[in-house]
Amino acid sequence: MNTLLSSIKSPNDLKGLAHKQLEQLAAEIREALCRIARTRTAHFASNLGVVELALALHTTFDFNYDRLIWDTGHQIYPHKMLTGRYPQIDTIRTRGGLMGYPNPAESPYDLLMTGHAGSSVATALGLKCGDDLFRPDEDRHAVAVIGDGAFPSGIVFEAMNHVGGLKKNITVVLNDNKMSICPRVGGLAEYLDRLRMATFYTGLKSEIQRILTHVPLLGDPVERILAQTKDAIKAGLLGGMLFEELGFHYLGPVDGHNIRQMQKYLLMARTFAGPVLLHIVTEKGHGFEPAVVDPVYFHTPSQFPDGNGSSEAGGKPSNAYTRYARDAIREQMRKNDRVAVITAAMCQGNMLEPIREEFPERFFDVGICESHAVAFAAGLAKTGGRPIVDIYSTFLQRSYDQIFQEVALQDLPVTLMLDRAGLTGPDGPTHHGVFDLTYLRPFPNMVVMAPGDAADLTAMLDFALSHHGPTAIRYPKAPAAMIDRDLMPIELGVAEVLGWGGDGTIIACGALLDNCRKAAEMLREEGMEVGVINARFVKPLDKATILRAVEESPLVVTVEEGALMGGFGSAVLEAASDAGLDTSRIHRLGIPDRFIEHGDRKSLLADLSLDAHGIAATCRRLAGKPELVESLQRRRAK
């Protein structure tokens, strides 16, 4: 099994392989990808689509020397196998194992930890300019691999504009598979569809013929290549001209599953003076028919079928916060025709497909363009709409300036639904949504909420859509608890008290409320009475309730699944300090000032003392401090 792949210790071992051996290697890589997907959730269809591309890149360039950046690095698995990490590939996305994205700590072939879309061209240009400035005697080439789903990102065209002006030797490989995670959208998608109709286009420039004469074409006659251009004149003049006008030589479209052909055109691209855009056409899920038929499900399949099994099984649990959010949005859209929903290529991740089908005129997928999504929402709100921007926490920060300028500054009623807030598990540090409280809290006019359970989430959306200004609701990638209690209505800046305790208070921010409640029950069984507050609002803070807890409780523990620096606990400290209260009894639990590795969410929470046992242990430890012991004794004596 995988006898050839197991012999590849570095890309240098690829150099002497015959074409049939490279094809065998591609088959073995796909077998390894299927093996991984059978054991855990992993990015699957996208990796199947770039197997031949990875082989062609590593047999054409020497990335010990040249530079390679993978955009939206979840399609990194074949590259990892070819760069000496095949023996560890079965550990990918497990705690302590390989990361599911590029990781410079693993290999010098991974230059940056790339987990967000669109930045590859800009980064590759920076690498090329740096090499030219600081290593002027070396002729390093820079390559950026970017998918057609990420390609419409604004930063891509900002970078291409700069590249074209500087005329640096950079190759941008546009991997066109008609997909991002879901089918891609927009005018550029239609443009690429027109380009794909051409069999070959090079801009019909005279230097092409000169280069074709001198570049080894691996058995493909020059005459045949030149003949193909005749069939592509119309498509070329209407298509590749966009890239040509930006200063790029355009090559393609090229079959992205033909190793020999890609080697030829990559070598051609390297021979050009100046930037080249090589347009390759691939099939997401190539080599595994169920993934070809349903590439959306097989982007990260939760269950992997044997043989030609169905992709119907699996999916998110029925009690996932994402599902509750989707259902709440759909109900609001049924009640109010001014409510619209906007997503940034995350229709599937946010489970919005039923909304897209039921309300196509009020559903907007803007592609991987988060800044545009928020500014677009501001425009809808200005005309009287009630837009909901449904987006992952880690991706919302890409629209920071638009949240400031177009939404908060204008005090517009835009609702931000932050899915995947907190720890996202095996996706790791590029995707953990732990910074949103810190970056949203400073904005005037912004209301920031964190539901303690599923009931809170539904009620908070109802509140947000009746509020006059901008709101944000954050919730994790996790099953949603449903806490049994008489639900208190959502009122602006009002917390929910689940119970007071004479020995201390735990203040929960968001979905860790159930862990806090369980911790209080543990402590109660030990004779320690600790109250629990469901903060609900991060901004405005319920100062009356929270300051009472700080003033009256021997110890106060704030709990949040977000960065401690500038987060909810910081807001509590600020409020207590402003009120002149003693803050020495306040202890904050949350995400420390470091990036959190990948692993299952349950284990990561335990490591950070954010599970019920960790919260209870923190309360015990604080209660054991001499000054707190004395305070507790005095209170009990009364």
Strand fraction band? 5-15%
Q: Which structural class do the helices and strands define?
A: alpha/beta
**Overall CATH class of the largest domain:** Alpha Beta
Name the helicity range.
Answer: 40-55%
Report the CATH superfamily of the largest domain: Thiamin diphosphate (ThDP)-binding fold, Pyr/PP domains
Radius of gyration: 27 Å
Query: Termini, distance in Å?
Result: 74 Å
Supply the number of structural domains: 3
In DSSP terms, counting alpha (H) and pi (I) runs of 4 or more, how many helices? 26
Q: Main traits of this protein?
A:
638 residues, alpha/beta, Rossmann fold, 3 domains, five-stranded parallel sheet, 40% helix, 14% strand
Structure description:
The protein folds into three domains: 5-290, 3-Layer(aba) Sandwich (Rossmann fold), CATH 3.40.50; 321-474, 3-Layer(aba) Sandwich (Rossmann fold), CATH 3.40.50; 497-637, Rossmann fold. The protein is built from 26 helices and 17 strands. A seven-stranded mixed beta sheet has the order 7-6-8-9-11-10-15, sandwiched between helices. It has a five-stranded parallel beta sheet with strand order 1-2-3-5-4, sandwiched between helices. The protein has a five-stranded mixed beta sheet with strand order 12-14-13-16-17, with helices on both faces. α23 (568-578) links the parallel β16 and β17 (586-591). The longest helix is centred in the first third of the chain and has 21 residues, at 19-39. It is globular. The model is unreliable at 198-207, 226-239 and 307-314 (pLDDT under 50).
